[in-house]
Write a structure and sequence with these properties.
127 residues; alpha+beta; Alpha-Beta Plaits; two-stranded antiparallel ribbon
Length: 127
C-alpha cells in the first residue's frame, strides 16, 4: 500500500530512512533508502519528504516490463531489469534512483516500515 506524509509533522529524524535501508538492504545506510528527507528551503526547521505514491508510471515506461505490480505496490524485478534508467526519468516525483554497484534502481517496494517507525506519525499508510 502507498504511504502519505504530513510534512508539517516531520521533524527530520531520518528514522524512516534507516528503517527502509535496514529492512530492504540489511544495513543502516540512509543513501539506500527509498524514502528521503531533505531540509526544506521554504522555512528553517521544516523538511521535504520524497516518497513514492505507487502511481505506476514507471512501470508503464519500462521497456522490459521489469516493474511488477504486487497487490497495490510496484516493485522492480532485478532479474528482468536492464538498468536502462527509463523508469528514473519517467518518475514524476523523482523517487527512483540509481545506487552505485546495484544492478537495478532503488524504488519503494511498499513495505511500509517507514510508517511503522515514525515517532510522530508523520507517515501513514493509505489505501
Amino acid at each position: 500500500m502507498a504511504i502519505k506524509v504530513d510534512m508539517r509533522k516531520c521533524m527530520g529524524c531520518r528514522i524512516c530512512e534507516m528503517a527502509c535501508s535496514l529492512v530492504n538492504y540489511n544495513e543502516s545506510n540512509t543513501k539506500k533508502s527509498a524514502i528521503r528527507i531533505n531540509e526544506s528551503h521554504k522555512m528553517i526547521g521544516t523538511f521535504d519528504v520524497v516518497y513514492c505514491n505507487q502511481c505506476g508510471i514507471c512501470a508503464k515506461k519500462c521497456p522490459v516490463n521489469a516493474i511488477i505490480k504486487e497487490g497495490k505496490n510496484w516493485r522492480i524485478d532485478e532479474q528482468l531489469c536492464t538498468n536502462c534508467g527509463i523508469c528514473i526519468e519517467a518518475c514524476p516525483r523523482k523517487t527512483i534512483f540509481e545506487f552505485e554497484g546495484f544492478q537495478s534502481p532503488i524504488k519503494c517496494c511498499g513495505c511500509n516500515e517507514c510508517a511503522k517507525v515514525c515517532p510522530v506519525q508523520a507517515i501513514t499508510v493509505v489505501g
